[in-house]
Amino acid sequence: MEKRKTLRQMLSDDKAYIVPGVFDCIGAKVAENAGFKLIAVTGNGAAASMAGLPDLGIVTMTEVINCSKNIADCTDIPVIADADTGFGQTLNIMRTVHEFETAGLSGIHIEDQVSPKKCPYYGGNKHEVVSVEHHVNTLKAAQAARKDKDFCIISRTDAIVSYGFDEAVSRSNQYLEAGADAAFIVGLSSIEEVERAVKLVKGPLIVNVNDTSPLNAFSEERYRQAGAKLILYPATIRNVFLKQAMEAMLHLKQHGNTRQILEKFASLKEFRDLVELGRYEELEREFATLTD
Fold it and tell me: Which residue of the set 25, 67, 74, 119 is catalytic?
């Protein structure tokens, strides 16, 4: 699968890549049309979008895979997805890998939180993680389940908040040694900390950027200089959508129309172009002629 080979190449070249988080097909196509080379299905956004639920390990594997498959189908760039803690124990994890791979994803990341996981950005100062041995076995089971060697299995650690930087780096290296294709450390808080992690982690490093974090001050080029590989912005589209939708609905309720805020709206042409209406109308005409 070419998209998986593309992701492999991205993980091994000398560039850094900003990766927007998406949770539906409109957001995915917007990100692709903006020129991004890779997108990530955010578990946080998917849980809210599909079920109106917080990211507390409530949504099921099937729900996340259905969402992810639709996104992978509608885009021509690689898509990685948040597989939480693997949605169960060993055999569940192996099925999770099989289902994401069959759905056309290019990779997944699996985290070392205890189950049920909790989004680290919801607050609190304690995030429990499983033992290193437990997560190493999870990663080995995941690798055994994949059919396509280019399907990427990324190890994510949430250890930094509760156990510190050194523990997160140590875990990342043990996960890479166990066969993970890249290391994802959640909770790095400065560009200097990113640079330290890059020097110590023995494989491609993935960084998470919260829009309100100090890390949201640097360019793709600066991250390349720091040595980071993928820089995930998981909540940007979600935050923009939520704010604009809330304001628009309040305005409509208060004024009974939207005429005063039309400049904030996408045009019908922009929407038509996004969903490629012209191409589908042409296909309809072509095959309608053939069947007449």
Answer: 119
**pLDDT by 10s per residue, the chain, length 292:** 899 999 999 999 999 999 999 999 999 999 999 999 999 999 999 999 999 999 888 999 999 999 999 999 999 999 999 999 999 999 999 999 999 999 999 999 999 999 877 776 666 556 789 999 999 999 999 999 999 999 999 999 999 988 999 999 999 999 999 999 999 999 999 999 999 999 999 999 999 999 999 999 999 999 999 999 999 999 999 999 999 999 999 999 999 999 999 999 999 999 999 999 999 999 998 888 665 5
DSSP 8-state code for residue 53: -
The yes-or-no answer on residue 119 being catalytic is yes
The burial of 53, by beta-carbon neighbours within 10 Å (0-12 exposed, 13-18 middle, 19 or more buried), is given as middle
